[in-house]
Amino acid sequence: MSSSKNHPEEDLDDMLDADDAAEEIVDGETDDIAMDSDNEELILHNDSIAFFDQAQDSLFAIAQHPVHPSLVAVGGSAGEDDNAPGAGWLVDTSAAQSRPVLPASFASDPSAAQQPKSTQLESLFSLDGHTDSINTLAWTLPQGEVLVSGGLDGRVRAWKTDVRPGAGVKVTFLGEAQEVPEVNWLAPCPPPSNPNTVALGASDGSVWVYNIDPSDAANPLQIVQSYFLHTMSSTAGAWTPDGQLLATISEDGSLYVWDVWGAAAAKNVVSENGMTVVSMTGEDQRFEVEGGLYSMAIDPAGGFVAVGGAGGAIRIVSLPRLSASTQSKSQARGRTAPKTSADPTTGGQILAALQTQSDSVESLAFSVTSSTPPTTLLAAGSVDGSICIFDATRRFNVRRHIAGAHEDHSVVKLEFIKNTWILTSCGMDGVVRRWDLRGGSTPGPTANAASDAGLVKEWKGHRGDGVGGGVLGFVQGETGERITTAGDDAVCLVFEA
């Protein structure tokens, strides 16, 4: 209990007078500004036609069924704790109601028109069993019979998905495998000759290929191959269009192209290790990317692979031609393949070394346009917020550099609408944007740098600014009519083009 000895008598004059203490302060007599609990006003803008908000934390992964594009899987964390389990869901985006083409002001009775509301999507099925975040999702090809999830717990889990038109979808858990510390990526093998096959890359640098047999209840996940040449985390992987070769990259700056099915060995086109047709590491100074490789994409004709990494560096490397059909497709499109890739034994040639952007290249995407003559475009998205477009038919000259495409926030993903000039992008600013790379918008009173760069539309609704927000992935089908996103703000949104 305090003592009066601690309050000298001379200090009593400085205490609040009793009359002052009883004085009331009337509302409106202060200059205080009302603020919310975060001491700032939130201005919300939502262009979505539907949303799914049952996730408890960030959604890291999203995948779209290859035959039924309205069926979308999302996955992430089931909580903010470091030891929170992973969680995922299946949703049907066809339930989203389209918005009117014209605004309410164009209605015959504008006062009676109601503001359109977003449709709340429900979960068709919950993906469980992961003890850490779901980091990647993929449906097997070509029919999407199996949904595969990869987690930061090192687990690979598989569910058989039977889509019954008019009767929903039946999901059956098949089994799981756990051979690695963390799963970084999944890539399904495309051709019907090897159905339900998926490759994965792990944090320990290993690469695994599984065949999933839904009819084998005892051993549904069967290991086809495993590789251990990467010395650091494997960051991305992609199959050639014919599914004969698998290319993978790593934080150690290496690129390996694996002869998974022995097609190259049959043509005597393999490295001394007997596993790869292309082996590129930092020991070759022409290929070296100090800081590692983080993104990759393969030319739709299968002629070369683009890999991107730290400092904005991109390397273009030729791939061997293992089948005459691959080469004939390239010629049929009107493209002239680089001379270095015309012979099956010449894979592994560095066709170009590019560096236009100032920070790490996080996403790469190819498109072969249906124009006459066809044009092969390579789009690169960087942590510096820019998008750079290269013309592969003209020695990878820079066609367009969109500085500040997502302001100063990282570009997370790029994807072309198939065989078009139309590119979709998302970033940590929480915005999805669409670009027409044939040219900018018609100049007008509202023209700005973005529209001049080819911006045709943007969609907002996610929290941005890189703090507890951003778009971490999207799917858009082949036509791009609807875009479904996975957000760092734990929300999945559906936008209509």
TrEMBL record:
Stored Gene3D superfamilies: YVTN repeat-like/Quinoprotein amine dehydrogenase
PROSITE patterns registered for this protein in UniProt: WD_REPEATS_1, WD_REPEATS_2, WD_REPEATS_REGION
Pfam families tied to this protein: WD40 (PF00400)
Key word Repeat present: yes
InterPro entries in the record: WD40/YVTN_repeat-like_dom_sf, WD40_repeat_CS, WD40_repeat_dom_sf, WD40_rpt, WD_repeat_multifunction
Region annotation Disordered: where it falls in the sequence: 325-346
WD repeat segments: 127-160, 227-260
TM region positions: none
Protein's recorded name: WD40-repeat-containing domain protein
Keyword Repeat in record: yes
Keywords from the UniProt entry: Repeat, WD repeat
Xref: SUPFAM superfamilies: WD40 repeat-like
